[in-house]
Amino acid sequence: MRDIHARPSRAGDITELDDALRSTDNCFDPEILQYSHNIRFLTAARGKDAIAHIPVQSVLMLESLGINPTASENDLARALNELIRYVLTLMHEGNFNEMYFIGTDARVCKVAENHGFKVLLDDTAKGHKLFVIKARWF
Question: Of 27, 2, 16, nearest to 53 (Cα)?
Fold first, then answer.
């Protein structure tokens, strides 16, 4: 039996790749097929026989947020607005299709939702929300 190897997907894989992604219960987002930047498709195959496909993309991930404990609610909201606007510029400059962050502070989560971030996962037991915002330029 020959080994299975991963490789970049080829033009001949596209129809099978599309069918496989749409038919597998894996949270497939069909919008990724419209992305023109920072995305690649990989195929694992045994010889010419494809076994599995996976899209791989570079995303912008916002890390932990430090908040001055003496900041007023109004100043915090304004600061978050400015930070998010600046990061959206970085997202555009870097041709990123998606941006993510994990929110735990209710105030921060509210600002994120007001800026168009969507809740992708909500772990109410831990108080964590995974947010995503998608670029409008793909």
Answer: 16
